[in-house]
Design brief:
This protein is an alpha+beta fold. It has 2 helices and 3 strands. Strands 1-2-3 form a 3-stranded antiparallel β-sheet. Helix 1 packs parallel to helix 2 (107-174). The mean pLDDT is 89.
């Protein structure tokens, strides 16, 4: 009784020898010996089919998983790349870009909205500074003109005072 391993020709090819296993046991009530045997390749064939199925399912799952991860990561990273690119333009002082349009309402969408508000605020602030600078320049030119006129009038007054002083001195000498 028990397992017995041996070599035996294959039924479809008598010239090829393959491993075979048999199990035998004697029935205690009847006294009969019952034996069953098969080729070892018969044990491995269903296992090979299962292995092939497992490898196929694993391969398909990996490809689909990688594709889903790639799509998901692009869905997250592309808006971040757009915001980063826009921030570079802002850092370089380019405030002429149109506001970013984001469809998502997640953190990246909120970041893009805040950046659009910052860009608008900076543009308005620079416009106000430019307007104020133009007004200061205009007022400065007017002040310079007034100062030149006051300087010319002062020189005229000084010249007149000199003439009056000279005239008074002449009158005093004549008197």
């Amino acid at each position: 009784g028990g397992f017995t391993y041996y070599e035996w020709p294959l039924p479809d090819n008598e010239n090829k020898i393959a491993s075979k296993v048999a199990y035998s046991k004697t029935d205690p009530h009847w006294g009969w010996t019952v034996a069953a045997g098969t080729y070892m390749i018969d044990f491995n064939e269903p296992a090979n089919e299962i292995l092939n199925l497992v490898l196929t399912v694993t391969g398909v799952t990996l490809v689909v998983g990688i594709l889903i991860i790639w799509l998901f990561s692009n869905h997250i990273s592309n808006p971040i790349k757009k915001v980063t690119n826009r921030m570079r333009h802002l850092a370089d002082g380019d405030l002429t870009q149109q506001p970013l349009q984001m469809k998502s309402k997640d953190e990246t969408g909120q970041l893009a909205g805040a950046m659009n508000e910052m860009q608008t605020g900076l543009r308005d602030m620079i416009r106000n500074v430019s307007d104020a600078s133009e007004k200061v320049t205009s007022q400065s030119e007017e002040l310079t003109q007034s100062a030149n006129e006051v300087s010319a009038a002062s020189q005229q007054i000084a010249s007149t005072m000199q003439q009056l002083s000279s005239g008074s001195e002449n009158q005093a000498n004549s008197t």
